[in-house]
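debug: dumping io for the single-chain case to check the tokenizer round-trip. Nothing else runs in this session.
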Amino acid sequence: MSLQYRFEIDICTNKDAGAGLPSLVSALAHASSVTITDHPSSPAFGGAIPFNISTVNIPATNPCEITIQPHEWGTLTTDPWAVANKATYTRIIAADCFWMRSQHENLVRTMRWFLAPGGKVWVVAGFHTGRAIVTGFFETALENGFGIESIYERDLNGQSEDGGEVRREWMPEREGEGPENRKRWCVVAVLTAST
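debug: decoded output
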């Protein structure tokens, strides 16, 4: 499988996402370039990210360029790297980075800034901090010029009879959903910038 995209990966503050794993999977899938970003204060820059890059066996024949870049969501016009890379990335992966409601607008502005024309934002989020937080992110994205190309919920624990994944319709709110049931589901979505 060959992906001919430039990637902006892991615009996340979640400590698990800060390991750069979606970026490394993208590199192994032959993305043309991958940029791993996290908050400048993240300890992952001195530990998990370089360690994971050094231990993943990316074949020498793979032309993917991997860069690591500290970035604070919403800091755009005053950050030389952000200015130089505006509208550069054809794919942005945002994984489990929606738990700070106060940062939703900065995150959405940052995604819009870096997304190339025709690009897509791939979103994956668990409901461990609550469905309302994730719903709030999607509302902010829609209010700030994104459209939802596709969205569904995936059961993290279940399989269909044929071994495939179990999906259900995305619901901003599910009556009677308790914390244990909520934790077994995640939302998967593709966002596109409205023109």
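debug: round-trip ok. The helical segments are 21-28, 48-55, 80-84, 104-114, 131-143, 179-183.
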